[in-house]
Structures are given as structure tokens and as C-alpha cells.
Amino acid sequence: MSVNAGEWFSEMMEHLREQPSRAPLYLVFTIYLTVWYAITSRWPFGENIYDSDWDVLLVLDACRVDTLREVADEYEFIGDVESKWSVGSQSAEWIANTFTESRKDEINNTTYISGNGFSKGILARGGRPPANNTTPIDLSAWSVVDERELQSHIAVWETNHDETYGSVLPEPMTDYTIEAGRNGESDQIITHYTQPHLPYVGAAFREGREATEREDRGYELLEVGRASRDDVYGDYKETLRWVLDDVEELLENIDAEKVVITSDHGEAFGEWYAYGHPEGFPHPVVRKVPWVETSATDEQTREPDVEVGDETKIDVEEHLRDLGYR
């Protein structure tokens, strides 16, 4: 057990100054998180990905079940879109509850290709949930493995964070996955795409323009009444199409009998007055994730480009800030 009373009190005062009407909610929520993580760090709620059989698992960050169903008919490789309860409602929570000591045998034979900065924060730097809030007391008991237990951990976000769109684009994620698949060094590959997570820049990228404020901030503007749900949701859905187009190419350039398309968590657009994906949030729109099973055959239609053009590594805080963790 550790006590974080000083830091927690400072954050409480900051909320009281900036959003006095919501400060009591923050108080209640952080106490709730104390209890939530005390329980779920020991007995995770949801189904671990290693409970299922797969060769390649594609994680589309923040992908809702209903949204994937809405676009499923546009893609031949998407059949039935089932759903499962995730082990997290936020990426850090999902990573901490996925890569656990009890799964070490499978993890030892896994290549994890990640566009999400929390992968290093949790697996290499010892960070633990909560990631976006401070609890007054930490009663958790996580059993997370070190990244060295993985066959390989490729942190694509460190060297391929696109400054124009404030995200890791689908293309380098796909290229690294093709490279890993053709190398054949791992029994299982997990590719953690950034999309359709905020910023919702799918349309902006396709049109070769800078993102609008609405595309950049998404549900943040919806929450304060500066954008409509239809417009924000439309940006989100277009960003999902953007990453699915690249997934389609991936499935033509890797050999895998069992491929799963899923997510770490969903995305809220006002359900239960929530926006985004609050950690420890039990609502099905965030906690339930899609589960699509398909296969892949390498037709050699794409040569992966895994050369890093700029050796400068982005700071994890800057990367996460661009993804909306302000």
C-alpha cells in the first residue's frame, strides 16, 4: 500500500479551481478507482486475449463494437462481428491486465508491435494504473511482466509519431507487422494500431490537409457543446475506415491461419455522461470490444518499409498528449 494524499489533494484543488461543479465527481471517482484497482489488479474483470487461439491479433485502439458492425459490409474480410468483455477500459489498464505473470509462457513467444505509448510506460518503466488520475491510496497488486519477457517489443510510436496528424499512422504499423510475419520468429504477433483513437484524422489524411479542431479534439468538443455528436462520430467512423483499409493490405501480405481483429476498449460519446474511455469505466460501450476472426495469406503485394527516417525518439508524454491525454 502507498499513500498519495499530497498529490491527490493538489489535483483535487486544481479541479476545484478549473471545474468547480465537477470537482465532487472527481472526488468520488478517485475513491472509486482506489477500490476498483484494489480488486481488478488481483482478479481482472473481462476476458484475456490469451484465453483464445490466434496467430495474429490486431488491436484497433478505441474501436466500438457497433461502429465496426456499421462498416463491416464494406470489407470482405469482416464476417460476424462478435464481442467480448475487455480487461480494461483504457489502454494502460488493458496492457497491465493482459501481459501478466500468469500468461508468461505465451508472452515469451509473442511479438508486440505497439503504436501506443503506454506499452513502454507499463512494460518497461514500471508504470501502473491509474494513468490519468491520482488516487489518495494505492491498494493495487499488479502482476505485470517486464517487456523483456516478450519475444520482441517494437515500440513504433517512439520513431514513427507523425507530427502533422499527432498520431502513429497505420502504414508503419502494417509494415512492421509484415516484416515480423515474414521473419517468422514468433508464434504470435500482436499489433496495436492507434486508430480509430483520437485524433480522428482519417478524412484529413485522405484529403492531404491538416486536421480541423473538431478532428483533432473530437469528443472533447462534444463534451463542452462545441460540436455535434453526428459530426464527431462521423470523423471517428472515417478514421476506423482508414485503419481498416491498411488492415486489408496486411491480410494480403502475411501468412496466418487465425487472425483476430479486436480492440483494447471502446469509445464513449455521451453514454452515462462519459466521453472517451475513462479508466475503470464499466459501461459496455467502452468495456465491450469487437472480436472478428479471419485469416491471411501472403500474396507479396507490399514490401514493408521499416526504415526510420528520423532517429529522434518522441517523448512519451508528448505522444500521449497528442492522443488526447492532456
From TrEMBL:
The keyword Transmembrane helix applies. Keywords: Membrane, Transmembrane, Transmembrane helix. Residues 294-313 are annotated as: Disordered. Residues 299-313 have a biased composition (Basic and acidic residues). Coiled coil: none annotated. This is AlkP-core domain protein. The lineage of its organism: Archaea, Methanobacteriati, Methanobacteriota, Stenosarchaea group, Halobacteria. The chain crosses the membrane at residues 23-39.
